[in-house]
Amino acid sequence: xxxxxxxxxxxxxxxxxxxxxxxxxxxxxxxxxxxxxxxxxxxxxxxxxxxxxxxxxxxxxxxxxxxxxxxxxxxxxxxxxxxxxxxxxxxxxxxxxxxxxxxxxxxxxxxxxxxxxxxxxxxxxxxxxxxxxxxxxxxxxxxxxxxxxxxxxxxxxxxxxxxxxxxxxxxxxxxxxxxxxxxxxxxxxxxxxxxxxxxxxxxxxxxxxxxxxxxxxxxxxxxxxxxxxxxxxxxxxxxxxxxxxxxxxxxxxxxxxxxxxxxxxxxxxxxxxxxxxxxxxxxxxxxxxxxxxxxxxxxxxxxxxxxxxxxxxxxxxxxxxxxxxxxxxxxxxxxxxxxxxxxxxxxxxxxxxxxxxxxxxxxxxxxxxxxxxxxxxxxxxxxxxxxxxxxxxxxxxxxxxxxxxxxxxxxxxxxxxxxxxxxxxxxxxxxxxxxxxxxxxxxxxxxxxxxxxxxxxxxxxxxxxxxxxxxxxxxxx
Length: 477
Description:
single chain; mainly alpha; 18 helices
């Protein structure tokens, strides 16, 4: 009897349930990648909306009244353009922060497939509407602010829904590692968003929004057609399991649509009383402040300081997200092995502070130095952010004090990420206000936020260290 081909052997060695798990992990990865892909273009086109027009060759038939602003896009042709960019960022981020606190509550009570797919389709519409302003020759700041705010609200459907969906399918073993890999969708989305926007930024910047809008809307249709919310025969995330439990268990349970759950959804105040929720939420506020300031202002900083054109600055900024992928995976691995989520975050935050200082001082001393500093800063800044929003949120959403309540994960995730989103809104706003006084002051603000994020975890770090010293039971994974 002839043996099966190695590829077929590999495929058949996994159970049907394992393939369902892999399929769900891949789907949710793609879905949230498109969320970040559609957020990134605004940071790429800033340097196109306001340029140094004296260095740009103008058409011969164009009647120019102002040699310095003729190529800028009104209303961003004014001297306070950096403040206007800050306002534009905050219209999205403030709406996102406010909406996130309610999103988790809705996510616990509505079918995740409908909730997620509708949010993606609406986000695609609002992203495309921003880009259509280029073709419709809209120069009203209010139009762009309104579109950004509405997009911020509908984008809150994404994070609580995908975390809850993954949490319904995967066990606690190696949670930090698997979610560290899965959470790279944030950086992958930022990279793809930068590259796609960069293709059109110099020719027709409206397409920098329209194309990502089409992509996320198409992903929303795929979500509606294929997403399976949970495995109803068992909920691995809610089981007590050892640290060496396999991520893809070999049972043969069948994936079907979610049946009615009579467990009462947790209240907002009840979620806040879960040990660790407040500390990690406040830590994420400052960690996300740093991360989102880089997300929205890094391409402009590179263009201004290193004097790259908008496309090259956008392409170079993707290295920060490449570092973020590595940092998120390392944070998950280290925290799985040590059992110290808070200590892992705190250690990376401590190292990040001097690296941010060095990036500002020597980061532009040649291309190799710039690349190296972007990778290091991306890993150290995004590592704790990734760990808190994934593995930590899943840990707290299934805390032992909940006594098996399976309807707390989305609410806890929304509280943590919603609090972090306040920092995400404040960071770019402060950058817009401070940057006219010099980029050095922006980096001092980022370093201060990084230190505060570290201090807010001090109680939890102390508790984990005592556990390692034998004063309390040490938990792994």
